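Narrative summary of target 7.
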Amino acid sequence: MFIYQLLCYLTWVLIEKIIVRLFGYLAYRNFARRYFSKVEINLIKDQETKFTDLGLNRDQGIAKLNYVLSKIYGKPYSERNGMWSEHLILFASISESNYKISNILEIGTFNGETARILSELFPFSEIITIDLMFEEILETKMYEYETNEKKLINSRIRNLESLPNVKFIEMNSLNLIEFNNSFDLIWIDGDHIYPTASIDIANAVRLLSPNGVGICDDVYTKNTKANIGGRSIASLQTMMAMSKSKLIEYTLVHKRIGFFFNFPSINKKYLGFIKKNNHITPLL
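Modeled conformation, tokenized:
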């Protein structure tokens, strides 16, 4: 018994030394940073290709966005800053492209930050942004991390005040079924699970102008058993079904580039870039 315990102890000591030496070597060679950097470089290249295929210039978008963010918040873009992600670069790239954006709809105002940025990127566009009444937000716990002492409402007021081209409406996004407006850009950032996610996308496609763009936030490609924290593939399945029916064409764009936002893969998020298919045979 003593010999067995001694062998186990020596084996563990040996394994521990090997592990320490291995991690020491990797740290000395800066392996982790080099590996993460390589992954991120590949993601950036892939993202730039996606933007180009969509008729957008990502570098121009970043330059425009940095100008706007520095003007509003005194700092340039960083995907580690709060809710900022590649959707802002998409918006900025669209503002620098040949897309004609006159009317914008935002589904999910949250704290008003995105609406404020859109207002600066598209100063001559009319923007409607909608969200639930505060009591409904509390009931659904959708923004639970931002609703203490009406923190969300106060942030929203600060962001939306004095924006002449932004109109905020307190309403459930399901009521968009009664809208007949046409929009050139729709940001879909409401509830991310069934049935609301599917209804929001369907309403957005219906309300898109012929050459309009819809962008859907937080698209997961891998489901979780309980749809924890909105981690549902509802948006993906809805876009796939609509694409199969030839109602839309869509492209998945990386939501963030950093290594830790993309691994493990179950945590990875995409943005859905949606274009209406205008070549549908009408019903007889």
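The chain has a mean pLDDT of 87.
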